[in-house]
Amino acid sequence: MKVSLFITCLGDVFYVNAGKSAVELLEHLGCEVDFPETQTCCGQPAYNSGYHRETKEVAKHMIEVMEDADYVVGISGSCVYMIHEYMHLFEEDSKWRDRAIALKEKSYELTQFIVDVLNIEDVGASYQAIATYHTSCHMTRLLGVQEAPFKLLEKVKGLELVDLPNRQDCCGFGGTFAVKMSNISEQMVDEKVDHIEETKANLLLGADGSCLMNIGGRISRRDKQVEVKHIAEILNSRGDR
């Protein structure tokens, strides 16, 4: 099965290990992985800020870049959802709308692809830690990926998964929301960190780099001893810790 990796901006710049882990994991599961080097931002920051004309140009580029892929697999549920949104940008342009729909139908978030397409729930991972998992808003509510991460994490040997209180609550990032409404965003992420502390977990996991960056930054500023990792890093672990 051939897969094109959608690395996302944050993955490319801040979560390189998550990208590497995703490639190694997919190859371990029997996939042939390529990396389209001309891929760019999915356009979500512009789209969420109301710049839809500019987003269309980004969308057209990404559609062309990924058009020949058998499957597109991303390491951020939020960014994969943005790809699914492309078709709404072209309501009055049937040509581009059809191409956007074709891309949507073959684009998946990593855990979604493993569980729903590869039909695998045990990837043979092993990792010793007490962990809790943050469910990001876009991935859970809009992309609709709710169970796949938990199905995979429950099979990781040595990993004790503790439920995060009020896990459905937003972490306060919300793209440009964290910039425009910084005071509110700070209160939201503080509440999220408080709930993480309640779990007594020493590891926070998530599948969206933006959320992990926001929560991880607050954890660091509050000097809390909680490690933050992308779920791909744990699923790719083979007992090396």
What does this structure look like?
This protein is of the alpha/beta class. The chain has two domains: 2-116, no CATH class; 121-235, Rossmann fold (3-Layer(aba) Sandwich). It has helices at residues 9-13, 16-28, 44-48, 52-66, 77-89, 94-104, 110-117, 137-142, 148-153, 177-180, 182-199, 209-221, 231-235, and strands at residues 2-6, 32-34, 71-74, 107-109, 126-133, 157-162, 203-206, 227-230. The chain has a four-stranded parallel sheet with strand order 2-1-3-4, with helices on both faces. Strand 7, helix 12 (209-221) and strand 8 (227-230) form a beta-alpha-beta unit. The model has no long low-confidence stretch (mean pLDDT 95).
Concise overview:
With 241 residues, the chain is α/β, with parallel strands linked by helices.
Furnish the topology, listing elements before pairings.
Layout: E1 2-6, H1 9-13, H2 16-28, E2 32-34, H3 44-48, H4 52-66, E3 71-74, H5 77-89, H6 94-104, E4 107-109, H7 110-117, E5 126-133, H8 137-142, H9 148-153, E6 157-162, H10 177-180, H11 182-199, E7 203-206, H12 209-221, E8 227-230, H13 231-235
Parallel strand pairs: 1-2, 1-3, 3-4, 5-6, 5-7, 7-8
